[in-house]
Amino acid sequence: MRKLFWALLFLLLIPSVLAADENTKKVYLHEAIDAALKNNVDLQATRLESSIAKNNIKSANRLQNPSIDAFYFMGAAGNNEPKQLGVSENFEIAKRSARKKLAESTLKLVQKNIDYSTFDLKMDVREAYINLVAMKSILFTLEQQKELQEELLDIAKSRVKNHKSQDIDVMQAEIALNQMIAQVNSAKVSVKKALSDFNKVINNPDDIVYDSMDRLFTEENNFEEMMTPPPDSRFPDFSTIVQKTLENRFDIQIAKQEIDVAEKNLTVVARQRIPDLQLSGGYAYQLGKYTDSGNFNNGAYAGASLVNIPLFYNYSPEIQNATLKLKQAELKYISVKNRAVKDVSAAYERFLTAADNLNHYEKKIVADSEKLIDTSKDSYEEGKSDITALIVMKQSYKSIIIGYSQALAEYYNSWTNFLREVNDEDFSLTDNL
Hints:
By secondary structure, the chain is an alpha+beta fold.
């Protein structure tokens, strides 16, 4: 009965596993960015703000709708008064153009925010992709170490069988192997979490699971594929990139545009004090029985008046608030520029440190550690050292390789963070030397 249950469960799971494989799409970093720009639901919603802002321009430039007027006096009091049918229209003075300019300025602000959101999404994809590859690399390293630990267990068993070592060597090797198995299982969970985060950033509503290419850090460091300069590149001085950064950063551009919006909003509010002009006109007639001559009289009427005269309320609170908002926008602009320089400085220092650490790993740590572990294994196999020393050495080597993968991930992420701060995804080192 139990065998039948497991057989049925296996048959039920096969279609879902195959479906997952069919829907999984391996992508390079640049392909992941393209997929996010095309499919990300949040970005699609943000882009709609542009159409809304364009419609607001049309709304701001609108004319007031006319009114149809009819005057018909009832009873004896109105017998001698003409009946009237006409149209009246309010004409805003110096207000439509101000509203339109404000709406146009707001559209520019919306477009800059969309550009910022698009750029920010690209950086988020880069970080999620790098993290996924890093988790895969750590898993790959641990699985390699697990295989080496299994090999060590076999060596220990062989030495005990040949009476060259004590039974405790096998026990130590088994404990080390079981610890490695637990670490491998934890690493697999980390990979699944990183894969989920990666797809959450892409945010494709279709039933597609995006996965990174399996070119791991520990196999080959393809900096071009990861859209990152090699760590041995020449890096410019900080002073050479500050000016370009201040020109490119989206938050500075947005803060500057917010000043323009606040200025135009102040103009719109201030012009509320200007009265509007109301014009009216139409057809008027008087029945003959109500005229002295007994004839039917008809003609037209016209009128003009000033409306919304700021006599009892002159919009002072609104104007004061608009002035304060303009002051806020100006202070924000200064603050954003000041923080930008500090953010770029911190990001650049982090990047230089990450590059230095990575070079240190590649040139001085990893290669020497590989030689040392091979020598230690041969030494134990020949009976020149004990298993405890070899296990300690292998654990140290594992830590070094994982540290190397983390150093690579930090280098890639520090470059992404640097690009995020300079707001230039095409930042070239050679152009700034």
